[in-house]
Write a structure and sequence with these properties.
Rossmann fold; Four Helix Bundle (Hemerythrin (Met), subunit A); 2 domains; five-stranded parallel β-sheet; 5 strands; about 65% helix
Length: about 325
């Protein structure tokens, strides 16, 4: 029986599916999971281009976000886990070497990854690991985009939007010392977005529609839903504190390190929250909810008095997002 799974993850849309399936398998087996992300620097920098300013910091932040989400999903289901980021090297060689070092007895991989095309039957790195024959390899099945209900994609898209703002903010702080007024204006816009967008549009879609219907269908995630709702309240307080910190920074009351730490703490908290929703709740919802349930959720989310149907609010946040893009450095 397998006791230790190695799960390589790439920064693509298949990763959260792979995490969910690997964690559920490990839970069934009573096994632990080690997640690994290999940074293929040569593939990431195409055509011999040199790394742009802040590239390493940006890459590591995105890799950290990916693995934080994976670990959060595993811990939510009681599966022991750890993770590692490997910088450089050929991905399949690094994966096999990590499996040997950690004593893993099964490698669980997505069929595509590490920049493989979505239309490909099997990614090159997955094929290389299979052909090495050193360890058993389980290649995960994938779900066609057409099988995912639009409400699932709406929630994922909103997570991506918030993640894009947080990555941009961390990149801005990693670039150096923002001294001019434009940088402060940009951070004010970011603070407003993270404080208002989840509360006004995103949380109602999760709590008022999905969570309530899911509670009526199964009790298997009641404890996790309770925790996510508690996190919504903590998230609100943390986001408001970010706005206060930006103002304190603009007035010279705090320096850059405390502001950077506050943004990084909030981002880490959000990666964990997103990992629980995407890696635990959405897969359970797709398993237990009927088509009629999904239609009910969609109808509730689009009724005239719902946040989603509030065109003015949605337009306001699109404008705010565009403003951040305009203020951000190229």
């Amino acid at each position: 029986m397998y006791r230790h799974l190695l799960v390589p993850l790439d920064d693509n849309d298949l990763s959260i599916e792979t995490v969910s399936k690997a964690v559920n398998l490990a839970r069934t087996l009573g096994a632990r999971v080690s997640f690994v992300h290999v940074h293929d620097r040569d593939a990431a920098l195409l055509n011999g281009e040199t790394a742009p300013a802040g590239y390493i910091d940006t890459y590591r932040e995105r890799a950290s976000a990916l693995l934080t989400k994976a670990e959060a999903a595993a811990r939510a289901l009681g599966v022991p886990c750890d993770s590692v980021i490997l910088d450089g090297g050929v991905p399949h060689e690094a994966i096999l070497e990590t499996a040997r070092k950690l004593g893993c007895d099964l490698i669980f991989m997505a069929p595509r990854g590490y920049r493989a095309a979505r239309g490909a039957a099997l990614g090159s790195q997955t094929a290389h690991v299979l052909m090495a024959g050193e360890l058993p390899v389980l290649v995960s099945s994938t779900q066609d985009a057409g099988q995912v209900h639009p409400m699932v994609e709406i929630i994922r898209d909103e997570h991506r939007a918030l993640a894009a703002v947080l990555h941009a903010w961390l990149h801005l702080l990693n670039e150096g010392n923002p001294q001019n007024e434009a940088d402060v204006d940009l951070m004010r816009a970011m603070a407003r977005y993270v404080a208002e967008f989840p509360l006004a549009l995103h949380h109602p879609r999760e709590h008022d529609y999905l969570f309530i219907v899911l509670r009526g269908r199964t009790a298997v995630v009641h404890a996790e839903l309770d925790e996510l709702e508690r996190q919504h309240e903590r998230e609100r307080a943390m986001a408001e504190a970010l706005g206060d910190n930006v103002e304190r920074y603009s007035q010279g009351q705090i320096g850059l390190p405390p502001l950077r730490d506050a943004v990084a703490s909030y981002a880490h908290f959000m990666w964990e929250h997103m990992g629980r929703v995407e890696g635990v709740i959405l897969p359970v919802a797709q398993r237990y909810l009927t088509e009629a349930d999904w239609n009910e959720i969609h109808a509730a989310a689009t009724r005239p008095d719902s946040p989603r149907a509030n065109g003015e609010a949605s337009a306001a946040y699109r404008q705010l997002f565009s403003r951040m893009a305009h203020l951000a450095p190229p």
